[in-house]
What does this fold into?
Amino acid sequence: VPISAPPRPTDTGILPIPEPDHPFIAPGPDDRRGPCPGLNTLANHGYLPRNGIASFEEIINATTHGYNMDYDLASGLAAFAMLARGNAFINKISIGLDSPLVPALPGEIDGPIARGLAAHGRFEGDVSMTRQDAAIGDNRNFQADLYDQLLSFVDQFGDNSTVTGPRSIVNQRVLAEFKYKRFVDSQAADKQLEYHIGRWLGSYGEASFTLNFFANGTDGILTVPTMTSFFRDQRFPANWNRRSGAGLLDKIGDDAGAILSAKPVQPGANDANGVYVPDTAPIDNCSFYNSFAEDVPAVLLNTTGLLKQNVDLLLDTVHNTFGAGCPVAEPRGAA
Ligand code: HEM
Ligand code: MG
It folds into this structure.
């Protein structure tokens, strides 16, 4: 199936979501759900296919429409996801684990199946907020004990609301304290902790998504009930609106940077003795972009025909979004 970039949305205004023709329906036993509360929620409302198996275009259309994620940001994430964990030949990816609907690429170049976004490594990684590290727990499903920790930080550092009560509004400080706690706990508990630049920055990006995309577009405020609806129930809250104005990478990056600098952590990994070893490589946008190349199987370069055409489009898209001004990085990941 040839992959092509869908048209850019023309309307990026505020909009009540979900629309009447997109009711919440809990996933069935064969439907795939994974580590991304944003995508799970879209699938539970039929903005993505309810079975959790989506194309490149469907992911872009759903995330831009449902959350007003900027088109280029959505395209870059969807492209990287497809390259890292999907089947770029049939243009399908599971937002959860393996599915018979997403077979291996021709020649089984990445093993007998394409694993999906919930498989550990490449995209899914350590120090998530509401999922445990793969080596020590469940890296796919919502973990109530971790979410309770987040709520306790809202209790301590949140802003006051006249509607939902004192300290019930999530802010940057809450996320900075929580992200730091998650790192400290993972560092101590997970001998195999990996937190190199791609995952490190990506994880702060996800903290920034929480503020930028889950907040109600009517006032730009993220309350605890709203956040719980997304993380725990994977359901759009009642009376919720998507943000007005597309959420651009620059703004997401600035907020991610603010969350990180309030409680700094270096990219790195644990060694065999469980000692955290910070990376020495420079930290800049090209290093971040370059790290994607480790997470895309190198064998994808040795392809022909339609698969090559699709892979080239996806690689270009990742470069446009995350590598502007950087030399093109060729995939060099293990299969
Ligand atoms: C986490 C994929 C869009 C919010 C993740 C993870 C993946 C992923 C693989 C797991 C990473 C990890 O924590 O180990 C994608 C893709 C997207 C997308 C391919 C395509 C555009 C969104 C959107 C939102 C969002 C639009 C918000 C509306 C989040 C959050 C997390 C996350 C908050 C962190 C969850 C946690 O740490 O507990 N995403 N995502 N994502 N995503 Fe997405
Ligand atoms: Mg994770």
In short: The radius of gyration is 19 Å.
